[in-house]
Amino acid sequence: MLRWVASVLSLLILGTAGAGYLYIQHLNNNIRSGGRSGGESGVKKPEPNAAGNTPLNILLIGSDSRNSEANVDLGGSRDSVGTKPRADVQMLVHISADRKNASVISIPRDTRVDIPECKDSETGETFRAGNAIINETLTRGGPGCTLTTWEKLTGIYIDHWMMVDFAGVVSMADAVGGVPVCVEHNVHDRPTRLVKGGSGLRLEAGETNIKGKQALQWLRTRHAFFNDQGRAKAQHMYMNSMLRELKAQNAFTDTGRIMDLAETGTKALQVSDGLDSVKKLFDLAMELKSVPTNRITMTTLPTVEYSRNKDQLVAVDKDADRLWQMLRKDIAFDANGKPGDAAEKPAPKKTGPPAAAPGTLTVSVVNGTAGDGQISAQGRAGAVADTLRGKGFTLAEAARTANPLKETVLSYPRDSGAQGTSDALSVAKALGLPDSSLRASGEVEKMTLTVGADWREGTTYPKKEAPKAGDLPDNADVINGSDDEACMPVYEPYRW
Question: What pTM did the predictor assign?
Answer without folding.
Answer: 0.77
